[in-house]
Amino acid sequence: MSAPTQRPKVTAHEARQTAEAARERDWHKPSFAKELFLGRFRLDLVHPHPLPADEDVRRGEAFLAALREFCETRIDGARIEREARVPDETITGLKELGALGMKIDRKYGGLGLTQLYYNRALALVGSASPAVGALLSAHQSIGVPQPLKLFGTQEQKDAFLPRLARTDISAFLLTEPDVGSDPARLATSAVPDGDSYVLDGVKLWTTNGVIADLLVVMARVPASDGHPGGITAFVVEADSPGITVEHRNAFMGLRGLENGVTRFHGVRVPAANRIGPEGAGLKIALTTLNTGRLSLPAACAGAGKWCLRIAREWAGVREQWGGPVGRHEAVGTKISFIAATTFALEAVVDLASQMADEDRNDIRIEAALAKLYGSEMAWLIADELVQIRGGRGYETADSLAARGERAVPAEQLLRDLRINRIFEGSTEIMHLLIAREAVDAHLSVAGDLIDPGASLADKAKAGARAGGFYARWLPGLVTGPGQLPGSYAEFGALAGHLRYVERTSRKLARSTFYAMSRWQGRMELKQAFLGRIVDIGAELFAMSAACVRAEHLRDTGDHGAEAHQLADAFCRQARLRTEELFGRLWSNTDDVDRRVADGVLAGRYTWLEQGIVDPSDEGPWIADATPGPATGEDVHRRVP
Predict the structure, then answer these.
(1) Which is catalytic among the residues 366, 424, 437, 502?
(2) What is the CATH number of domain 283-428?
(3) pLDDT digits over 179-197, tens only?
Protein backbone atom coordinates (compact mmCIF):
# COMPACT_ATOMS: atom_id res chain seq x y z
CA MET A 1 0.00 0.00 0.00
CA SER A 2 1.44 3.37 -1.03
CA ALA A 3 2.03 6.20 1.42
CA PRO A 4 -0.65 8.85 1.87
CA THR A 5 -0.41 11.80 -0.47
CA GLN A 6 0.98 15.06 0.89
CA ARG A 7 -0.80 18.37 0.50
CA PRO A 8 -0.71 19.30 -3.19
CA LYS A 9 1.19 22.38 -4.30
CA VAL A 10 -1.08 24.14 -6.76
CA THR A 11 -0.90 27.33 -8.75
CA ALA A 12 -3.74 29.84 -9.03
CA HIS A 13 -4.46 28.51 -12.52
CA GLU A 14 -4.62 24.92 -11.27
CA ALA A 15 -6.93 25.92 -8.43
CA ARG A 16 -9.30 27.60 -10.89
CA GLN A 17 -9.18 24.55 -13.16
CA THR A 18 -10.18 22.29 -10.24
CA ALA A 19 -13.12 24.51 -9.36
CA GLU A 20 -14.14 24.84 -13.01
CA ALA A 21 -14.05 21.07 -13.53
CA ALA A 22 -16.47 20.61 -10.62
CA ARG A 23 -18.99 23.08 -12.01
CA GLU A 24 -22.24 21.85 -13.48
CA ARG A 25 -21.66 23.32 -16.93
CA ASP A 26 -24.81 22.49 -18.84
CA TRP A 27 -28.13 24.30 -18.56
CA HIS A 28 -30.87 21.82 -19.40
CA LYS A 29 -33.64 23.83 -17.75
CA PRO A 30 -34.51 27.52 -17.71
CA SER A 31 -33.21 29.74 -14.94
CA PHE A 32 -34.94 32.95 -13.90
CA ALA A 33 -31.81 34.37 -12.28
CA LYS A 34 -29.52 33.42 -15.17
CA GLU A 35 -31.85 35.21 -17.57
CA LEU A 36 -31.97 38.21 -15.22
CA PHE A 37 -28.20 38.63 -15.40
CA LEU A 38 -28.44 38.40 -19.20
CA GLY A 39 -30.90 41.29 -19.30
CA ARG A 40 -33.98 39.13 -19.89
CA PHE A 41 -36.70 39.51 -17.27
CA ARG A 42 -38.55 36.18 -17.55
CA LEU A 43 -41.44 36.89 -15.18
CA ASP A 44 -43.27 33.90 -16.68
CA LEU A 45 -40.81 31.58 -14.92
CA VAL A 46 -41.94 32.72 -11.45
CA HIS A 47 -45.45 34.12 -11.94
CA PRO A 48 -48.06 32.96 -11.13
CA HIS A 49 -46.35 31.91 -7.91
CA PRO A 50 -45.79 28.10 -7.96
CA LEU A 51 -47.83 26.24 -5.34
CA PRO A 52 -47.43 22.93 -3.49
CA ALA A 53 -49.77 20.02 -4.04
CA ASP A 54 -52.67 19.65 -1.60
CA GLU A 55 -51.31 16.40 -0.15
CA ASP A 56 -47.90 17.98 0.41
CA VAL A 57 -49.60 20.85 2.23
CA ARG A 58 -51.61 18.48 4.41
CA ARG A 59 -48.59 16.44 5.49
CA GLY A 60 -46.37 19.49 5.82
CA GLU A 61 -48.79 21.43 8.01
CA ALA A 62 -49.39 18.39 10.22
CA PHE A 63 -45.67 18.03 10.86
CA LEU A 64 -45.23 21.75 11.50
CA ALA A 65 -47.95 21.59 14.15
CA ALA A 66 -46.20 18.70 15.90
CA LEU A 67 -42.82 20.41 15.58
CA ARG A 68 -44.19 23.67 17.02
CA GLU A 69 -45.44 21.84 20.13
CA PHE A 70 -42.03 20.16 20.46
CA CYS A 71 -40.22 23.50 20.14
CA GLU A 72 -42.44 25.11 22.77
CA THR A 73 -42.21 22.27 25.31
CA ARG A 74 -38.95 20.37 24.73
CA ILE A 75 -36.38 22.82 23.34
CA ASP A 76 -34.85 25.11 25.96
CA GLY A 77 -32.81 27.59 23.97
CA ALA A 78 -31.54 29.38 27.07
CA ARG A 79 -30.26 26.11 28.52
CA ILE A 80 -28.50 25.23 25.25
CA GLU A 81 -26.82 28.65 25.31
CA ARG A 82 -25.72 28.26 28.95
CA GLU A 83 -24.50 24.66 28.67
CA ALA A 84 -23.10 25.03 25.14
CA ARG A 85 -24.63 21.77 23.99
CA VAL A 86 -27.94 20.35 22.83
CA PRO A 87 -29.20 17.96 25.54
CA ASP A 88 -29.34 14.31 24.57
CA GLU A 89 -33.04 14.16 25.44
CA THR A 90 -33.75 16.95 22.94
CA ILE A 91 -31.93 15.10 20.17
CA THR A 92 -33.68 11.87 21.12
CA GLY A 93 -37.01 13.68 20.95
CA LEU A 94 -36.21 14.98 17.47
CA LYS A 95 -35.46 11.43 16.38
CA GLU A 96 -38.76 10.18 17.77
CA LEU A 97 -40.57 13.03 16.01
CA GLY A 98 -39.02 12.00 12.70
CA ALA A 99 -37.18 15.31 12.29
CA LEU A 100 -34.00 13.55 11.14
CA GLY A 101 -35.90 12.27 8.13
CA MET A 102 -37.78 15.38 7.00
CA LYS A 103 -36.24 15.26 3.52
CA ILE A 104 -35.86 11.50 3.27
CA ASP A 105 -38.39 9.61 1.17
CA ARG A 106 -41.15 7.80 3.04
CA LYS A 107 -40.16 4.47 1.51
CA TYR A 108 -36.96 4.68 3.57
CA GLY A 109 -38.78 5.66 6.77
CA GLY A 110 -38.53 9.41 6.32
CA LEU A 111 -41.26 12.04 6.25
CA GLY A 112 -40.76 12.92 2.60
CA LEU A 113 -41.46 16.63 3.10
CA THR A 114 -41.10 19.03 0.21
CA GLN A 115 -38.26 21.54 0.18
CA LEU A 116 -40.82 24.23 1.01
CA TYR A 117 -41.99 22.56 4.21
CA TYR A 118 -38.52 21.39 5.15
CA ASN A 119 -37.35 24.99 5.07
CA ARG A 120 -40.37 26.16 7.05
CA ALA A 121 -39.56 23.52 9.64
CA LEU A 122 -35.96 24.74 9.88
CA ALA A 123 -37.14 28.34 10.30
CA LEU A 124 -39.45 27.22 13.11
CA VAL A 125 -36.94 25.09 15.02
CA GLY A 126 -34.18 27.64 14.42
CA SER A 127 -36.30 30.28 16.16
CA ALA A 128 -36.38 28.07 19.25
CA SER A 129 -32.65 27.36 19.07
CA PRO A 130 -30.35 28.22 16.16
CA ALA A 131 -28.03 25.44 17.31
CA VAL A 132 -30.79 22.83 16.93
CA GLY A 133 -31.66 24.27 13.53
CA ALA A 134 -28.02 23.98 12.48
CA LEU A 135 -27.89 20.37 13.71
CA LEU A 136 -30.88 19.35 11.60
CA SER A 137 -29.72 21.33 8.57
CA ALA A 138 -26.18 19.95 8.61
CA HIS A 139 -27.62 16.44 8.91
CA GLN A 140 -30.01 16.67 5.94
CA SER A 141 -29.07 19.60 3.73
CA ILE A 142 -25.39 18.76 3.24
CA GLY A 143 -24.90 15.58 5.28
CA VAL A 144 -25.14 12.00 4.02
CA PRO A 145 -28.86 11.92 3.00
CA GLN A 146 -28.69 14.51 0.21
CA PRO A 147 -25.63 13.15 -1.66
CA LEU A 148 -27.10 9.65 -1.43
CA LYS A 149 -30.43 10.87 -2.74
CA LEU A 150 -28.75 12.48 -5.76
CA PHE A 151 -25.82 10.16 -6.48
CA GLY A 152 -26.07 7.04 -4.32
CA THR A 153 -26.64 3.51 -5.57
CA GLN A 154 -29.82 1.69 -4.65
CA GLU A 155 -27.80 -0.52 -2.32
CA GLN A 156 -26.41 2.53 -0.52
CA LYS A 157 -29.84 4.08 -0.18
CA ASP A 158 -31.28 0.85 1.21
CA ALA A 159 -28.42 0.50 3.68
CA PHE A 160 -28.11 4.03 5.01
CA LEU A 161 -31.27 6.09 4.47
CA PRO A 162 -33.48 4.16 6.95
CA ARG A 163 -30.84 4.73 9.63
CA LEU A 164 -30.51 8.41 8.75
CA ALA A 165 -34.26 8.91 8.83
CA ARG A 166 -34.73 7.77 12.41
CA THR A 167 -31.58 7.13 14.44
CA ASP A 168 -28.26 8.17 12.89
CA ILE A 169 -26.89 11.71 12.73
CA SER A 170 -24.69 12.64 9.78
CA ALA A 171 -21.96 15.19 9.08
CA PHE A 172 -20.23 16.57 5.97
CA LEU A 173 -16.41 16.65 6.02
CA LEU A 174 -14.68 18.73 3.35
CA THR A 175 -12.77 21.59 5.02
CA GLU A 176 -9.25 21.03 6.35
CA PRO A 177 -7.03 23.21 8.57
CA ASP A 178 -5.31 24.64 5.50
CA VAL A 179 -8.11 24.16 2.95
CA GLY A 180 -11.23 26.29 2.86
CA SER A 181 -12.76 27.44 -0.41
CA ASP A 182 -9.78 26.21 -2.46
CA PRO A 183 -10.39 22.44 -2.68
CA ALA A 184 -7.51 21.90 -5.12
CA ARG A 185 -5.24 21.79 -2.05
CA LEU A 186 -7.25 19.10 -0.28
CA ALA A 187 -4.83 16.64 1.32
CA THR A 188 -6.90 13.93 3.04
CA SER A 189 -6.07 10.81 1.06
CA ALA A 190 -8.03 7.68 0.19
CA VAL A 191 -5.58 5.06 -1.05
CA PRO A 192 -7.10 2.03 -2.83
CA ASP A 193 -6.29 -1.27 -1.14
CA GLY A 194 -8.11 -4.30 -2.52
CA ASP A 195 -11.84 -3.83 -2.14
CA SER A 196 -11.36 -0.89 0.23
CA TYR A 197 -9.84 2.56 0.51
CA VAL A 198 -7.62 3.65 3.39
CA LEU A 199 -8.25 7.20 4.60
CA ASP A 200 -5.65 9.45 6.23
CA GLY A 201 -5.93 13.13 7.03
CA VAL A 202 -7.51 15.80 9.24
CA LYS A 203 -10.83 17.58 8.75
CA LEU A 204 -11.76 20.88 10.40
CA TRP A 205 -15.12 22.44 11.33
CA THR A 206 -17.03 19.19 11.07
CA THR A 207 -20.53 20.35 12.03
CA ASN A 208 -22.27 17.45 13.84
CA GLY A 209 -18.94 15.61 13.71
CA VAL A 210 -18.75 15.36 17.50
CA ILE A 211 -22.00 13.36 17.71
CA ALA A 212 -22.27 11.93 14.18
CA ASP A 213 -22.91 8.28 13.38
CA LEU A 214 -22.31 8.54 9.62
CA LEU A 215 -19.99 10.86 7.73
CA VAL A 216 -19.69 11.93 4.12
CA VAL A 217 -15.97 12.51 3.61
CA MET A 218 -14.17 14.15 0.69
CA ALA A 219 -10.71 12.66 0.14
CA ARG A 220 -8.16 12.59 -2.67
CA VAL A 221 -7.64 9.25 -4.41
CA PRO A 222 -4.18 9.04 -6.03
CA ALA A 223 -4.23 8.11 -9.70
CA SER A 224 -2.97 4.60 -10.44
CA ASP A 225 -3.71 1.64 -12.71
CA GLY A 226 -7.49 1.20 -12.75
CA HIS A 227 -8.01 4.29 -10.61
CA PRO A 228 -8.49 7.66 -12.33
CA GLY A 229 -8.16 9.28 -8.91
CA GLY A 230 -9.22 12.74 -7.82
CA ILE A 231 -11.34 14.14 -4.99
CA THR A 232 -13.92 11.50 -4.14
CA ALA A 233 -16.88 11.20 -1.76
CA PHE A 234 -17.27 8.34 0.74
CA VAL A 235 -19.84 7.32 3.36
CA VAL A 236 -17.87 6.48 6.50
CA GLU A 237 -19.05 4.93 9.76
CA ALA A 238 -18.08 7.39 12.49
CA ASP A 239 -17.04 4.64 14.89
CA SER A 240 -14.60 3.07 12.43
CA PRO A 241 -11.19 2.23 13.91
CA GLY A 242 -8.73 5.06 13.29
CA ILE A 243 -11.25 7.94 13.54
CA THR A 244 -10.70 10.39 16.38
CA VAL A 245 -12.59 13.57 17.16
CA GLU A 246 -9.66 15.48 18.57
CA HIS A 247 -11.36 18.68 19.60
CA ARG A 248 -14.82 20.22 19.99
CA ASN A 249 -14.66 23.76 18.63
CA ALA A 250 -16.22 26.73 20.43
CA PHE A 251 -17.53 29.80 18.60
CA MET A 252 -18.78 33.31 19.29
CA GLY A 253 -22.30 32.11 18.48
CA LEU A 254 -24.14 28.81 18.00
CA ARG A 255 -22.67 27.65 21.28
CA GLY A 256 -24.59 24.38 21.10
CA LEU A 257 -23.03 23.44 17.76
CA GLU A 258 -21.39 20.01 17.88
CA ASN A 259 -18.50 20.99 15.62
CA GLY A 260 -15.04 19.51 15.84
CA VAL A 261 -11.72 18.41 14.37
CA THR A 262 -11.73 14.84 13.04
CA ARG A 263 -8.59 12.81 12.33
CA PHE A 264 -8.45 9.77 10.04
CA HIS A 265 -5.53 7.39 10.48
CA GLY A 266 -5.54 4.19 8.47
CA VAL A 267 -9.35 4.19 8.32
CA ARG A 268 -10.57 1.41 6.08
CA VAL A 269 -13.69 2.20 4.04
CA PRO A 270 -15.33 -0.39 1.75
CA ALA A 271 -15.28 0.54 -1.93
CA ALA A 272 -19.05 -0.03 -1.84
CA ASN A 273 -19.28 3.12 0.30
CA ARG A 274 -17.87 5.35 -2.41
CA ILE A 275 -20.50 7.80 -3.70
CA GLY A 276 -20.24 8.13 -7.45
CA PRO A 277 -17.04 7.54 -9.42
CA GLU A 278 -13.56 8.55 -8.37
CA GLY A 279 -12.92 12.23 -9.01
CA ALA A 280 -16.59 13.23 -8.73
CA GLY A 281 -16.42 14.42 -5.11
CA LEU A 282 -16.43 18.16 -5.72
CA LYS A 283 -19.20 17.92 -8.31
CA ILE A 284 -21.25 15.94 -5.80
CA ALA A 285 -20.58 18.55 -3.10
CA LEU A 286 -21.54 21.49 -5.33
CA THR A 287 -24.66 19.80 -6.66
CA THR A 288 -25.71 18.93 -3.11
CA LEU A 289 -25.37 22.59 -2.18
CA ASN A 290 -27.62 23.72 -5.04
CA THR A 291 -30.66 23.08 -2.88
CA GLY A 292 -28.82 22.51 0.41
CA ARG A 293 -28.01 26.21 0.57
CA LEU A 294 -31.72 27.03 0.88
CA SER A 295 -31.79 25.87 4.49
CA LEU A 296 -29.62 28.77 5.61
CA PRO A 297 -31.78 31.59 4.19
CA ALA A 298 -34.81 29.79 5.64
CA ALA A 299 -33.26 30.18 9.08
CA CYS A 300 -32.48 33.82 8.24
CA ALA A 301 -36.11 34.48 7.33
CA GLY A 302 -37.15 32.92 10.63
CA ALA A 303 -34.71 35.18 12.47
CA GLY A 304 -36.21 38.19 10.71
CA LYS A 305 -39.68 37.20 11.89
CA TRP A 306 -38.49 37.02 15.50
CA CYS A 307 -36.71 40.37 15.22
CA LEU A 308 -39.89 41.93 13.84
CA ARG A 309 -41.93 40.63 16.75
CA ILE A 310 -39.49 41.89 19.37
CA ALA A 311 -39.10 45.25 17.65
CA ARG A 312 -42.88 45.68 17.46
CA GLU A 313 -43.52 44.79 21.08
CA TRP A 314 -40.58 46.70 22.55
CA ALA A 315 -40.95 49.83 20.43
CA GLY A 316 -44.58 50.05 21.47
CA VAL A 317 -43.99 49.99 25.23
CA ARG A 318 -40.65 51.77 25.55
CA GLU A 319 -41.38 55.50 25.88
CA GLN A 320 -38.92 58.33 25.37
CA TRP A 321 -39.48 62.05 24.68
CA GLY A 322 -43.23 61.90 25.15
CA GLY A 323 -44.14 58.74 23.23
CA PRO A 324 -43.29 55.16 22.23
CA VAL A 325 -39.85 54.97 20.57
CA GLY A 326 -41.39 53.26 17.55
CA ARG A 327 -43.30 56.46 16.75
CA HIS A 328 -40.06 58.40 16.41
CA GLU A 329 -38.85 58.46 12.82
CA ALA A 330 -35.28 57.45 13.71
CA VAL A 331 -36.58 54.15 15.10
CA GLY A 332 -39.55 53.82 12.76
CA THR A 333 -37.29 53.63 9.71
CA LYS A 334 -35.49 50.71 11.32
CA ILE A 335 -38.76 48.93 12.04
CA SER A 336 -39.86 49.48 8.44
CA PHE A 337 -36.58 48.00 7.20
CA ILE A 338 -36.98 44.94 9.43
CA ALA A 339 -40.60 44.34 8.35
CA ALA A 340 -40.10 44.92 4.63
CA THR A 341 -36.86 42.91 4.44
CA THR A 342 -38.31 40.00 6.41
CA PHE A 343 -41.20 39.89 3.95
CA ALA A 344 -38.72 39.78 1.07
CA LEU A 345 -36.52 37.12 2.70
CA GLU A 346 -39.50 34.83 3.16
CA ALA A 347 -40.61 35.55 -0.41
CA VAL A 348 -37.17 34.58 -1.76
CA VAL A 349 -36.98 31.37 0.27
CA ASP A 350 -40.53 30.23 -0.49
CA LEU A 351 -40.20 30.97 -4.20
CA ALA A 352 -36.84 29.22 -4.55
CA SER A 353 -38.05 26.28 -2.45
CA GLN A 354 -41.19 25.78 -4.50
CA MET A 355 -39.15 26.06 -7.70
CA ALA A 356 -36.88 23.33 -6.33
CA ASP A 357 -39.91 21.14 -5.61
CA GLU A 358 -41.37 21.62 -9.09
CA ASP A 359 -38.00 20.86 -10.69
CA ARG A 360 -38.94 22.77 -13.85
CA ASN A 361 -36.16 25.31 -13.44
CA ASP A 362 -32.44 25.18 -12.77
CA ILE A 363 -32.15 27.02 -9.45
CA ARG A 364 -28.42 26.87 -8.81
CA ILE A 365 -28.12 30.68 -9.08
CA GLU A 366 -31.40 31.32 -7.23
CA ALA A 367 -30.28 29.16 -4.29
CA ALA A 368 -26.90 30.85 -4.17
CA LEU A 369 -28.51 34.30 -4.31
CA ALA A 370 -30.91 33.31 -1.53
CA LYS A 371 -27.99 32.22 0.65
CA LEU A 372 -25.98 35.34 -0.08
CA TYR A 373 -28.85 37.79 0.34
CA GLY A 374 -30.41 36.05 3.33
CA SER A 375 -27.19 35.91 5.33
CA GLU A 376 -26.30 39.55 4.67
CA MET A 377 -29.75 41.03 5.26
CA ALA A 378 -30.54 38.95 8.36
CA TRP A 379 -27.32 40.21 9.93
CA LEU A 380 -28.41 43.81 9.26
CA ILE A 381 -31.89 43.07 10.65
CA ALA A 382 -30.45 41.66 13.88
CA ASP A 383 -28.05 44.58 14.20
CA GLU A 384 -30.96 47.02 13.86
CA LEU A 385 -32.89 45.14 16.54
CA VAL A 386 -29.97 45.45 18.94
CA GLN A 387 -29.86 49.18 18.19
CA ILE A 388 -33.61 49.55 18.77
CA ARG A 389 -33.28 47.75 22.09
CA GLY A 390 -30.36 50.01 23.08
CA GLY A 391 -28.40 48.89 26.14
CA ARG A 392 -30.84 46.03 26.62
CA GLY A 393 -29.96 44.78 23.15
CA TYR A 394 -26.33 44.45 24.21
CA GLU A 395 -27.18 42.82 27.55
CA THR A 396 -27.48 39.04 27.73
CA ALA A 397 -30.83 37.36 28.26
CA ASP A 398 -29.65 35.83 31.55
CA SER A 399 -28.61 39.24 32.86
CA LEU A 400 -31.94 40.77 31.87
CA ALA A 401 -33.83 37.98 33.63
CA ALA A 402 -31.65 38.24 36.74
CA ARG A 403 -32.73 41.84 37.26
CA GLY A 404 -36.40 41.17 36.55
CA GLU A 405 -36.83 41.97 32.86
CA ARG A 406 -37.91 39.89 29.92
CA ALA A 407 -35.06 37.63 28.78
CA VAL A 408 -34.73 38.72 25.15
CA PRO A 409 -31.64 37.13 23.53
CA ALA A 410 -31.04 39.87 20.94
CA GLU A 411 -27.26 39.90 21.40
CA GLN A 412 -27.21 36.11 21.11
CA LEU A 413 -29.05 36.22 17.80
CA LEU A 414 -26.53 38.71 16.46
CA ARG A 415 -23.72 36.34 17.43
CA ASP A 416 -25.56 33.31 16.09
CA LEU A 417 -26.32 34.91 12.72
CA ARG A 418 -22.78 36.10 12.10
CA ILE A 419 -21.60 32.68 10.94
CA ASN A 420 -24.14 32.64 8.10
CA ARG A 421 -21.97 35.08 6.16
CA ILE A 422 -19.24 32.40 6.27
CA PHE A 423 -21.09 29.03 6.40
CA GLU A 424 -21.49 27.05 3.15
CA GLY A 425 -19.54 29.59 1.10
CA SER A 426 -18.54 32.98 2.47
CA THR A 427 -20.08 36.12 1.02
CA GLU A 428 -16.88 36.74 -0.93
CA ILE A 429 -16.85 33.23 -2.38
CA MET A 430 -20.57 33.40 -3.16
CA HIS A 431 -19.95 36.62 -5.09
CA LEU A 432 -17.37 34.86 -7.25
CA LEU A 433 -19.41 31.67 -7.65
CA ILE A 434 -22.54 33.52 -8.74
CA ALA A 435 -20.55 35.88 -10.96
CA ARG A 436 -19.03 32.88 -12.75
CA GLU A 437 -22.48 31.46 -13.44
CA ALA A 438 -23.82 34.89 -14.42
CA VAL A 439 -21.19 35.35 -17.15
CA ASP A 440 -21.30 31.73 -18.27
CA ALA A 441 -23.12 32.57 -21.50
CA HIS A 442 -20.41 35.06 -22.41
CA LEU A 443 -17.54 32.71 -21.59
CA SER A 444 -19.22 29.89 -23.51
CA VAL A 445 -19.14 31.85 -26.74
CA ALA A 446 -16.19 34.19 -26.23
CA GLY A 447 -14.03 32.57 -23.55
CA ASP A 448 -11.20 31.67 -25.91
CA LEU A 449 -10.96 35.28 -27.07
CA ILE A 450 -9.74 36.34 -23.64
CA ASP A 451 -7.89 33.13 -22.75
CA PRO A 452 -4.14 33.77 -23.18
CA GLY A 453 -3.58 30.04 -23.59
CA ALA A 454 -6.00 29.61 -26.51
CA SER A 455 -4.60 29.00 -29.97
CA LEU A 456 -5.18 31.37 -32.88
CA ALA A 457 -7.53 28.83 -34.42
CA ASP A 458 -9.57 28.63 -31.21
CA LYS A 459 -9.67 32.41 -30.98
CA ALA A 460 -10.92 32.62 -34.56
CA LYS A 461 -13.71 30.13 -33.84
CA ALA A 462 -14.62 32.01 -30.68
CA GLY A 463 -14.73 35.26 -32.60
CA ALA A 464 -17.22 33.80 -35.04
CA ARG A 465 -19.40 32.42 -32.22
CA ALA A 466 -19.25 35.69 -30.32
CA GLY A 467 -20.20 37.70 -33.39
CA GLY A 468 -23.35 35.66 -33.91
CA PHE A 469 -24.30 35.66 -30.22
CA TYR A 470 -23.84 39.38 -29.63
CA ALA A 471 -25.55 40.30 -32.91
CA ARG A 472 -28.68 38.67 -31.48
CA TRP A 473 -28.23 39.58 -27.83
CA LEU A 474 -27.14 43.20 -27.75
CA PRO A 475 -30.17 44.67 -29.61
CA GLY A 476 -32.44 43.13 -26.97
CA LEU A 477 -30.78 45.25 -24.29
CA VAL A 478 -31.94 48.53 -25.81
CA THR A 479 -35.69 48.44 -25.19
CA GLY A 480 -38.17 46.29 -23.31
CA PRO A 481 -41.47 46.16 -21.43
CA GLY A 482 -39.97 48.17 -18.58
CA GLN A 483 -40.24 51.28 -20.71
CA LEU A 484 -43.95 50.83 -21.39
CA PRO A 485 -46.21 52.49 -18.78
CA GLY A 486 -48.86 49.76 -19.02
CA SER A 487 -46.56 46.76 -18.50
CA TYR A 488 -47.32 44.38 -15.62
CA ALA A 489 -50.55 46.26 -14.88
CA GLU A 490 -52.05 43.21 -13.14
CA PHE A 491 -49.68 43.92 -10.22
CA GLY A 492 -51.36 47.24 -9.50
CA ALA A 493 -49.17 49.61 -7.52
CA LEU A 494 -46.27 47.15 -7.75
CA ALA A 495 -46.17 47.29 -11.56
CA GLY A 496 -43.73 50.19 -11.48
CA HIS A 497 -41.28 48.14 -9.46
CA LEU A 498 -41.42 45.27 -11.95
CA ARG A 499 -40.85 47.71 -14.79
CA TYR A 500 -37.82 48.92 -12.86
CA VAL A 501 -36.54 45.34 -12.51
CA GLU A 502 -36.93 44.77 -16.25
CA ARG A 503 -35.13 47.99 -17.19
CA THR A 504 -32.43 47.46 -14.61
CA SER A 505 -31.73 43.87 -15.63
CA ARG A 506 -30.92 45.18 -19.12
CA LYS A 507 -28.71 47.88 -17.62
CA LEU A 508 -26.97 45.23 -15.51
CA ALA A 509 -26.31 43.10 -18.59
CA ARG A 510 -24.94 46.09 -20.50
CA SER A 511 -22.63 46.91 -17.58
CA THR A 512 -21.35 43.35 -17.48
CA PHE A 513 -20.71 43.34 -21.22
CA TYR A 514 -18.90 46.65 -21.06
CA ALA A 515 -16.70 45.40 -18.20
CA MET A 516 -15.81 42.22 -20.10
CA SER A 517 -14.94 44.26 -23.18
CA ARG A 518 -12.82 46.61 -21.07
CA TRP A 519 -10.95 44.16 -18.87
CA GLN A 520 -11.20 40.89 -20.87
CA GLY A 521 -8.93 38.30 -19.22
CA ARG A 522 -8.37 40.55 -16.20
CA MET A 523 -12.10 40.45 -15.40
CA GLU A 524 -11.62 37.66 -12.86
CA LEU A 525 -9.30 39.95 -10.87
CA LYS A 526 -12.01 42.60 -10.55
CA GLN A 527 -13.61 40.89 -7.58
CA ALA A 528 -15.07 44.04 -6.02
CA PHE A 529 -16.74 44.92 -9.32
CA LEU A 530 -18.11 41.39 -9.70
CA GLY A 531 -19.40 41.50 -6.14
CA ARG A 532 -21.43 44.62 -6.92
CA ILE A 533 -22.80 43.04 -10.10
CA VAL A 534 -23.99 40.06 -8.06
CA ASP A 535 -25.44 42.27 -5.31
CA ILE A 536 -27.47 44.17 -7.91
CA GLY A 537 -28.78 40.87 -9.26
CA ALA A 538 -29.66 39.77 -5.72
CA GLU A 539 -31.69 42.94 -5.14
CA LEU A 540 -33.54 42.46 -8.43
CA PHE A 541 -34.28 38.82 -7.61
CA ALA A 542 -35.57 39.78 -4.16
CA MET A 543 -37.75 42.53 -5.62
CA SER A 544 -39.22 40.07 -8.13
CA ALA A 545 -39.91 37.49 -5.42
CA ALA A 546 -41.50 40.09 -3.13
CA CYS A 547 -43.84 41.38 -5.86
CA VAL A 548 -44.84 37.88 -6.99
CA ARG A 549 -45.54 36.83 -3.40
CA ALA A 550 -47.55 39.96 -2.64
CA GLU A 551 -49.68 39.46 -5.74
CA HIS A 552 -50.21 35.80 -4.86
CA LEU A 553 -51.39 36.78 -1.37
CA ARG A 554 -53.74 39.37 -2.83
CA ASP A 555 -55.19 36.77 -5.21
CA THR A 556 -55.82 34.37 -2.34
CA GLY A 557 -57.22 37.05 -0.03
CA ASP A 558 -54.55 36.34 2.59
CA HIS A 559 -53.39 39.74 3.88
CA GLY A 560 -53.07 40.93 0.29
CA ALA A 561 -53.27 44.67 1.01
CA GLU A 562 -50.68 44.46 3.79
CA ALA A 563 -48.41 42.29 1.62
CA HIS A 564 -48.56 44.85 -1.17
CA GLN A 565 -47.60 47.58 1.28
CA LEU A 566 -44.62 45.56 2.55
CA ALA A 567 -43.51 44.68 -0.99
CA ASP A 568 -43.77 48.33 -2.03
CA ALA A 569 -41.67 49.46 0.94
CA PHE A 570 -39.08 46.78 0.29
CA CYS A 571 -38.81 47.60 -3.41
CA ARG A 572 -38.37 51.29 -2.70
CA GLN A 573 -35.59 50.49 -0.24
CA ALA A 574 -34.00 47.99 -2.65
CA ARG A 575 -34.06 50.49 -5.51
CA LEU A 576 -32.02 52.96 -3.46
CA ARG A 577 -29.45 50.24 -2.67
CA THR A 578 -29.37 49.20 -6.32
CA GLU A 579 -28.74 52.70 -7.59
CA GLU A 580 -25.92 53.11 -5.09
CA LEU A 581 -24.35 49.86 -6.30
CA PHE A 582 -24.56 51.00 -9.92
CA GLY A 583 -22.84 54.23 -8.97
CA ARG A 584 -20.04 52.31 -7.31
CA LEU A 585 -19.48 50.10 -10.36
CA TRP A 586 -17.49 52.86 -12.03
CA SER A 587 -16.85 55.36 -9.24
CA ASN A 588 -15.12 53.59 -6.37
CA THR A 589 -11.90 53.24 -4.41
CA ASP A 590 -10.97 49.77 -5.70
CA ASP A 591 -7.57 50.80 -7.12
CA VAL A 592 -6.69 52.83 -4.04
CA ASP A 593 -7.81 50.00 -1.77
CA ARG A 594 -5.64 47.53 -3.66
CA ARG A 595 -2.56 49.76 -3.29
CA VAL A 596 -3.19 50.27 0.41
CA ALA A 597 -3.72 46.52 0.94
CA ASP A 598 -0.45 45.80 -0.88
CA GLY A 599 1.26 48.34 1.37
CA VAL A 600 -0.15 46.74 4.51
CA LEU A 601 1.02 43.30 3.43
CA ALA A 602 4.45 44.69 2.53
CA GLY A 603 4.79 46.14 6.03
CA ARG A 604 4.85 49.81 5.02
CA TYR A 605 2.31 50.83 7.66
CA THR A 606 3.53 48.90 10.69
CA TRP A 607 4.13 52.26 12.42
CA LEU A 608 0.34 52.61 12.55
CA GLU A 609 0.16 49.53 14.80
CA GLN A 610 2.29 51.08 17.55
CA GLY A 611 0.80 52.03 20.90
CA ILE A 612 -1.13 48.83 21.59
CA VAL A 613 -0.53 45.38 23.04
CA ASP A 614 -1.63 42.17 21.34
CA PRO A 615 -3.54 39.88 23.75
CA SER A 616 -3.26 36.91 21.38
CA ASP A 617 -1.23 33.94 22.57
CA GLU A 618 1.76 32.75 20.59
CA GLY A 619 1.21 29.85 18.19
CA PRO A 620 0.93 28.93 14.53
CA TRP A 621 -1.73 30.64 12.43
CA ILE A 622 -2.80 27.25 11.05
CA ALA A 623 -2.61 24.08 13.12
CA ASP A 624 -0.46 21.19 11.97
CA ALA A 625 -2.54 18.67 10.03
CA THR A 626 0.14 16.09 9.25
CA PRO A 627 -1.45 12.65 8.81
CA GLY A 628 -0.73 10.21 11.57
CA PRO A 629 -2.17 8.58 14.68
CA ALA A 630 -4.15 10.59 17.19
CA THR A 631 -2.29 11.74 20.28
CA GLY A 632 -5.17 13.07 22.35
CA GLU A 633 -8.49 12.01 23.78
CA ASP A 634 -11.39 11.14 21.48
CA VAL A 635 -14.23 13.54 22.33
CA HIS A 636 -16.75 11.88 20.02
CA ARG A 637 -19.93 10.99 21.88
CA ARG A 638 -22.94 8.96 20.93
CA VAL A 639 -26.42 10.22 21.62
CA PRO A 640 -28.32 7.32 23.27
Answers:
(1) 424
(2) 1.20.140.10
(3) 877 778 899 999 999 999 9
